[in-house]
């Protein structure tokens, strides 16, 4: 039975799709059969980040409306074994998703996969609520910035009330915090919220910390999830995040400012 | 003198300002968590009705909804201004 994990945030542009792609890739690289589903109907982008935009024929809405089968719509990742992508529709609007349709799709995937990663759209409207409704766990992506933290708290409120688990009243969706675009230098200068402040305010457990990194833009430019760039700080930070998601105890990295050496100052050492 | 003050004053780090502001707003948001969707409207309309008779501030009305085993209790606290000032 697959574990359903929603990647959500409330605020847009904080790195949901980047994180969903990187984490799904990491899970697959560790041997888990994984599918990542784009719930952002009308504004799909996961296909671009995963580098499969030219292979999209059918999408989630086609499947829900019975115009295509799941097997026709699922795209097998070219780089990673065990990894599949289910893109969102570019032309329909958000009302094309129905709770029954989403449930049907997830039920059909549950037996075949180990992990189903739901990439939520921004906002707290229908699309975001459907992406989180059937989740067992949630990864809340937050930037060290006031509006992002506030929106994350709103999303935590919804996870605690507007999900199937919450409505059944038996257990809660397991909530994880993922801090992205963290800049330890600015934190040291007192110009950026530090990770303890954020975890204290939101009072959920930290799953991972992704430093602000040139590797992320490089990865999206190329359509290769940043997890594959295992020399980069962001790639390693996502690999750590995946390990923790799998229950391993991995120490935190990249949260302290590194002093640049004289040589790398002179020659502009990257990453 | 002013210049000296300016130099002596330690600038408050923006991150700690952000933290304080967030703690307040998040505490406020959580106070509203789990309450029915109609509560903000109910609060507003009750305030309007009260204002027809007494002039009270927005802050003077405090509404909470507590759930017990099989019923919910709507508690309404209104701080009225001193009646002497009223007339």
From TrEMBL, chain B:
Top-rank taxon, per record: Bacteria
Pfam families according to UniProt: MinE
Keywords: Cell cycle, Cell division
A GO biological process held by the record: cell division
Listed InterPro entries: MinE, MinE_sf
Record family assignment: Belongs to the MinE family.
Record function comment: Prevents the cell division inhibition by proteins MinC and MinD at internal division sites while permitting inhibition at polar sites. This ensures cell division at the proper site by restricting the formation of a division septum at the midpoint of the long axis of the cell.
Protein name per Swiss-Prot or TrEMBL: Cell division topological specificity factor
Gene of this entry: minE
């Amino acid at each position: 039975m697959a574990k359903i994990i929603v990647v959500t945030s409330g605020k847009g542009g904080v790195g949901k799709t980047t994180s969903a792609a990187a984490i799904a890739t990491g899970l697959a690289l560790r041997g888990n059969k994984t599918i990542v589903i784009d719930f952002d109907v009308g504004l799909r982008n996961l296909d671009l980040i995963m580098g499969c935009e030219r292979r999209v024929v059918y999408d989630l809405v086609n499947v829900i409306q019975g115009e295509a089968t799941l097997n026709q719509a699922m795209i097998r990742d070219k780089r990673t074994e065990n990894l599949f992508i289910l893109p969102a529709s570019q032309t329909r609007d958000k009302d094309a998703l129905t709770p029954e349709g989403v449930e049907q799709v997830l039920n059909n995937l549950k037996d075949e996969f180990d992990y189903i990663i739901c990439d939520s759209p921004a906002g707290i409207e229908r699309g975001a609520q459907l992406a989180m409704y059937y989740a067992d766990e949630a990864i809340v992506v937050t930037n060290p910035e006031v509006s992002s933290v506030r929106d994350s708290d709103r999303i935590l409120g919804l996870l605690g009330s507007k999900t199937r688990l919450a409505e059944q009243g038996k257990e809660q969706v397991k909530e994880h915090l993922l801090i992205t675009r963290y800049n330890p230098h600015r934190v040291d200068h007192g110009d950026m919220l530090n990770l303890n402040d954020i975890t204290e305010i939101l009072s959920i457990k930290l799953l991972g910390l992704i430093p602000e990194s040139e590797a992320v833009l490089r990865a999206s430019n190329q359509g290769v999830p940043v997890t594959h760039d295992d020399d980069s700080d962001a790639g390693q930070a996502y690999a750590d995040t995946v390990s923790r998601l799998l229950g391993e105890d991995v120490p935190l990295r990249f949260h302290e400012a590194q002093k640049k050496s004289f040589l790398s100052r002179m020659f502009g050492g990257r990453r | 003198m002013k210049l000296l003050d300016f130099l002596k004053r330690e600038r408050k780090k923006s991150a700690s300002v952000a933290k304080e502001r967030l703690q307040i707003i998040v505490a406020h948001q959580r106070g509203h968590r789990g309450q029915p969707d109609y509560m903000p409207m109910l609060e507003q309309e009750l305030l309007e009705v009260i204002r027809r008779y007494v002039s009270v501030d927005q802050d003077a009305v405090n509404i909470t909804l507590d759930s017990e085993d099989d019923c919910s209790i709507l508690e309404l606290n209104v701080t009225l201004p001193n009646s002497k000032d009223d007339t």
